[in-house]
Amino acid sequence: MERYHSSRNIVYQIYPRSFKDTTGNGVGDIRGIISKLDYLADLGINTIWLSPVYKSPNDDNGYDIADYKAIQPEFGTMEDFEELVAEAKARGIGILMDLVINHTSDEHEWFQKALAGDPKYRDYYIIRKGKNGKLPNNWGNFFAECPWTKFGDSEDEYYLHLFSKKQPDLNWHNPAVLEEVKDILRFWLEKGVAGFRCDVINVIYKNSLENGRPKPILTGSEHYLSTEGCHEILRTLRKEVLEPYGAVTVGETVFVDVPKALDLCAPERKELDMVFSFEHMEVDQVIVKWFKTKLVPRKLMACLTKWQKALPWNAIYFENHDQPRFISRFADLGPYRREASKMMAGLLMTLRGTPFLYEGQEIGMENGDFKDLSEVMDIESHNVHAMAKSLHLPAGIRWKMIQRTSRDNARTPMQWTAGPNAGFTDGTPWLKVNGNHTEVNVEAELADPQGVRAFWKTMIALRKSNAVLAEGDFRSVYEGSKVYAFERSKDGKSFLILCNLSSKTARIPAAARAWKTLFLSSCDAPLQNELSPFEFRLLEN
Ligand code: ISL
């Protein structure tokens, strides 16, 4: 139990579709993950979060589950999965499953039975009559669709889906749904998984289906964000199912502010262990994520500090399968891909909380190099593009939106080698491999002791072995236009962390002078009074 809740945990997220293909079908698979476990163990991580590997028609790449107890055939078999758990365990690595319980696939047996008229399963979903020829309510949808779709052949009945129409929302007012989910959790816990990353967990329980206050996005969300019903479900699952197994949970919690996050993961509430908050992902957005401005480092620092101070412990991350690559967000990245990647490694490993890194981050992968919409596969990107078109946004702007923000930016195949398809597959990859793989790849990194991956490895080892970095208190020391300085301290020992979040050389702030000894720098030849572009530096007192 202790191990998985440990402050020394370092989590590595795998998007199985894009990690490593061993069959030549162009899609990553479980055997591919097994083949790379030594690589991951060597990096020093001790937990893997697997994006969904369950049977799915892939409308949303596995976030639309058709069978919670079966492995997606293109990823392999249940035996492969069991081998993965065992092989990972042998290397001291635990597996977190992705738990998607706001919705199922419309191809799930439950929804199919509901469509066939079985009243038991009809009540697993949210099905309502339209109102005077109109939709049941005015709610919005996460994927820029209408959230209501006609239920089967019905003339005037609709089912609710906050995501795609192939992802009908479950009815969490029905106790049978809770029982099904308990059973699913136990099924995977019995297989030895360490816990769950809980997809959009704070929206599962809808208080009512009343009209919402009209808003630019997600009208209606006040009726389902962090409801008391949701809190109660989380407490029940933890007490009755998760706790006996010592399982860990991290909730993906959309639109959480600090109080809402605390309500979900403050230890005394016994709900989730940690949450993924989004505010730091939104510092460069204008109203919605599709419109971005320049990333202003000071805004990012202020946001990080705010969350560091407010929560006793939390998940920390800069990348995942839904977000553009973080280094690609620096408008002035220029030739500093390696430097910025190292600096982000330093930052992630020295903030307080459980660090989550995403596949490819450890070698400094950048956004996909897509040339037009035909190269983009993600349903959200296509829906948003279509919506922008219907709003008569010019083609150039529409493409910019997708190019900069599409979730496929982070989903391009993992770059293992400089060879064909970056060594990801012998077949045709399901999503275009980034052309920069000839330069950015694991093979090259493994041969480079000064490389990005080597720095990640150093930082991971330090984070795991050092009590001050793992458990120490956090205090912001300086937030400038380029430099972020913060202190981590414990039992009279203290580190000062200096990050240059810009491509310009930056003066070391006066406030940093109390820390005299250079412990480590991401830069070969650190300067006396200045930080080099995107330098990360650790000082001791
Ligand atoms: O991409 C987003 C954040 O910028 C969101 O709109 C995202 O859809 C939301 O965070 C929910 O994400 C999760 O649930 C979705 C799935 O498509 C995402 O991949 C998953 O992370 C529906 O299951």
Beta-strand content: 15-25%
Q: Give the helix proportion (percent range).
A: 25-40%
Terminal-residue CA separation: 35 Å
Count every beta strand, where a strand is a DSSP E run of 2 or more residues: 22
Runs in which pLDDT lies below 50 for 5 or more consecutive residues are none
Give the CA-based shape: globular
* Overall pLDDT score: 97
Biggest beta-sheet profile: 8 strands, parallel
Total number of helices: 16
Key descriptive features of the protein:
541 residues, alpha/beta, eight-stranded parallel beta sheet, globular, binds 6-O-alpha-D-glucopyranosyl-D-fructose
Question: Can you describe what's shown?
Answer:
The chain is of the alpha/beta class and 541 residues long. Helices cover 29% and strands 18% of the residues. The chain is built from 16 helices and 22 strands. It has helices at residues 2-5, 30-35, 37-43, 78-90, 109-115, 119-122, 175-190, 228-245, 258-265, 297-310, 337-350, 379-390, 395-405, 442-446, 452-465, 467-471; strands spanning 11-14, 47-50, 54-55, 67-71, 94-99, 127-129, 148-150, 157-160, 195-198, 248-252, 274-276, 285-286, 288-292, 315-317, 354-358, 473-479, 483-490, 493-500, 506-507, 517-521, 530-531, 536-540. It has an 8-stranded parallel beta sheet with strand order 11-10-9-5-2-1-15-14. A 5-stranded antiparallel beta sheet has the order 16-17-18-22-20. A 3-stranded antiparallel beta sheet has the order 6-8-7, with no helix packed on it. The protein is globular. The protein starts with a helix and ends with a strand. The model has no long low-confidence stretch (mean pLDDT 97). Bound molecules: 6-O-alpha-D-glucopyranosyl-D-fructose. The site of 6-O-alpha-D-glucopyranosyl-D-fructose has 13 residues, from loops.
